[in-house]
Protein 1
Amino acid sequence: MNNSMYSRKNTARAERLQRRLDAGSVATHYPEVASIVVSMMYTQKGVQKSLPRNVYFSPSSYALFRIDCLNKECVDGGFDFTQVITGMIRNRRVTSKGNLSCEGDGPSADHATIDFEVVIQYV
């Protein structure tokens, strides 16, 4: 790996960490939330088998509801659940289902998608 690529990866990593720190915790922003579970079926173009994946947010988790893309060739990708989750909390909804496409750049357009279900438990 050359120095400029190494430097870009370190810069990106530092920016991700700063975004997490800036987001604060789930408990700080949403004290009424006991847990959030995002269950998804990850599908990547060119791969026949879908991959089940669960991501858990507790009160001590960062209030950053973005989940990284699993495609190793994806650049700045992921799935942003911010609007889904904050809308659910605002309306005190318990479940929501849908699908999202990866927002990143990769080897081809629409390289990864997920079908998801979000379940929130309140205190």
Protein 2
Amino acid sequence: MPTQTEFPLVFQKLKAILKPYSLKLNLKADTAEAFYLDGPYSEKWKKVLFFGAAQIKKNYVSFYLMPVYMYPELLKNISPKLKKHMQGKSCFNFNNVDTVLFKELERLTKLGFERLMREGHP
């Protein structure tokens, strides 16, 4: 069974999925245990939009992706295996590195970013 000693590697892999978006979004946290991105203020939503984060927790590493909450149709084609890692409507929890699932999460993040930029920011 995976242990917390693997969490820093899991975190680094999940952070790497989000990091390219830090060039166009607002970096709110970049520590050894948390990486957090906000979008700009949205006239449509009347607030700054949370985009995503990776964070080491006690029993797993969480990957948050708010566009899948805002646009749930983005989830219609995810694999059952990735779906099993979902907690709530926009959070995925992992306790080990899964290259295949992380690639799928990378594609989902790209779709979410594109959708948010297209619809969330007129």
